[in-house]
Design a protein that fits this description.
The protein is an alpha+beta fold and 522 residues long. The chain has 12 helices and 19 strands. It has 4 domains: 101 residues; 147 residues, no CATH class; 75 residues; 129 residues, no CATH class. A hairpin with a 4-residue loop joins β8 and β9.
Length: 522
């Protein structure tokens, strides 16, 4: 290691001289650091825009789906018996509903507690006496299984065997089973509901199946009698619904019934009505929220595109930052980070594409129908340069109330040629797509390009393979290379000055010797 000292012979401050020399030598490294910082500022700004655009994309994603524009609500007059919801196929009107029955599973509960004389049995009690065995058979619509019971089988373990029963092929019988210790009884049911569901319980030897079904004294469970058999079945839901004076009976294996464009969920027998009426407010608010979100993202991106760039405030070097107060450095950074995306071509292209396709008619819809946003009262503000939208609320409400299907198509229609099931799929023609589909495609493309440019938000440096990520990594490598070069150069400077000082010291010694010698001869 080089000794760094003030020149003892020359009287020079070598440390200061070398430090001053190194300041000029470090200029190329400082320039690389500032480029790395600027690239980092840009990357962070791109990621900020990526996050904002992705958030906007997610907020309007539902504009692609017809269910979003379902302009009807369904109201049940008897929610204790049934509830209802509308679909895009619902027809306004009043429907009379009678719930005759609800769907149920095949369900068996022991008729009375199982006892071992006078006391109720526990889940851990053994069913049979030592040395006794028994066998039951369970049959469902899924198959048949035989269950062996021996002297070690408890009530709880038998319930587990029943629940896990499978046929000869290993397929589950689709049963739930448990032993309820509080009531000392079995509860066995099918997993699915409906009249086609059944559970048949048969004693092949012994009386365990009989005990499961009826309960009572368990002392004869192991008797070799057999022959007991009981079958339980589920039920279907049955609903009579009257529309236009015509009554239709609808049955279902579940309690969810679809009829006349309605989704009805039944819970109890009973009667009432379902009123289906227009719900234009929901659709209006959806579209208004979309316009507000659109204008917000326009503002956010345009603010970034038009941000002032302060070229007199480049990123601070490490030495400059160390020489500043924390507050001064913060104020400098605010200026240095401004304008990172001013007039950025990538973001400009995104905004230009959005403005273009928000105003263009949907060519997949007939020209005499609602085929553009302007026809439903959504236009660009007069003399606006940023492309923000404004709403004629009266015109929009009239469109929703009078032509709900056309409003739905304006947002949801797709280009049939872009059907991904076609091989190979044809790229979508945005002019044929509805507004929701257009937004989805444009914003997806924007998010992908921003990710390619700067990486996804919160991506770590080690995983960032974006264009800017690679540049930042390259600058970091160059900076480290310069650190090694500068250390070598600084060492060389010290060696040179130390050598000079040593030479001066030697010269001084020689002069002193000569002077001493001459003086000694006088």
């Amino acid at each position: 290691m080089v000794n760094r000292i003030v020149g003892t012979a020359s009287g020079l401050d070598i440390d200061k001289i070398v430090s001053d020399l190194m300041k000029s030598e470090k200029i190329p490294q400082d320039t690389i650091y500032q480029k790395q910082q600027w690239a980092t500022y840009q990357r962070d700004s791109y990621r900020e825009m990526n996050l904002a655009i992705d958030t906007f994309r997610k907020s309007v994603d539902n504009l692609r789906f017809q269910s979003t524009f379902n302009a009807y609500s369904a109201i049940s007059s008897n929610t204790n018996s049934f509830t209802a919801s509308s679909t895009s196929n619902s027809v306004p009107g009043t429907y009379s509903v009678v719930v005759n029955s609800t769907a149920s599973v095949a369900n068996m509960i022991t008729a009375q507690p199982i006892t071992n004389g006078t006391n109720k049995v526990k889940s851990t009690d053994k069913i049979l006496n030592p040395g006794v065995t028994s066998q039951i058979e369970i049959q469902t619509i899924s198959g048949v299984a035989t269950i062996d019971i021996d002297e070690n089988t408890t009530y709880a373990s038998l319930a587990s065997k029943i629940a896990g029963a499978s046929d000869a092929s290993g397929a589950s019988l689709g049963i739930r089973a448990m032993f309820d210790e509080a009531t000392s009884s079995f509860v066995i049911s099918s997993k699915d509901s409906g009249a086609n569901q059944s559970i048949k319980l048969t004693d092949k030897t012994g009386n365990v199946a009989s005990l499961i079904s009826t309960g009572g004294d368990s002392s004869n469970a192991g008797a070799i009698t057999g022959g007991f058999s009981k079958t339980i079945q589920g039920t279907d839901a049955s609903v009579d619904i009257t529309s236009g004076g015509v009554t239709s009976n609808v049955t279902s294996s579940t309690n969810n019934i679809s009829v006349f464009g309605l989704k009805i969920n039944v819970s109890n027998t009973g009667s009432g009505t379902i009123s289906v009426k227009s719900d234009s407010d929901a659709v209006f608010n959806t579209i208004k929220n979309f316009v507000d979100a659109y204008n917000s993202i326009i503002d956010k991106v345009n603010t970034k595109l038009n941000e002032d760039r302060y070229r007199d405030y480049p990123p601070l070097t490490k030495d400059q930052r160390n020489a500043m107060s924390e507050n001064d450095a913060k104020l400098w950074d605010e200026k240095a980070k401004s304008g990172t995306l001013t007039r950025d071509p990538l973001l400009n292209d995104v905004m230009s594409t959005l403005r273009q396709y928000m105003s263009a008619p949907v060519t997949g819809i007939a020209s005499n129908e609602l085929n553009s946003l302007s026809k439903i009262g959504i236009t660009t503000q007069y003399m606006s340069l940023d492309g923000k939208l404004q709403i004629d609320e009266t015109k929009l409400r009239n469109a929703i109330n009078n032509n709900p299907d056309q409003v739905m198509n304006l947002f949801t229609i797709s280009d049939p040629n872009a059907d991904p099931s076609k091989k190979p799929p044809v790229p979508a023609d945005k002019n044929k797509e509805g507004i929701g589909e257009r937004l989805y495609d444009i914003l997806n493309d924007a998010v992908s390009k921003l990710k390619e440019k700067a990486g996804a938000p919160n991506t770590s440096d080690s995983l960032d393979t974006s264009i800017l990520g690679k540049s930042i990594s390259d600058y970091a490598n160059q900076y480290n290379d310069w650190t090694d070069k500068l250390q070598d150069l600084e060492t060389r400077y010290y060696n040179q000055f130390n050598a000079m000082d040593a030479a001066i010291q030697k010269l001084n010694s020689q002069v002193s010797y000569i002077t001493s010698a001459l003086g000694g001869g006088r």
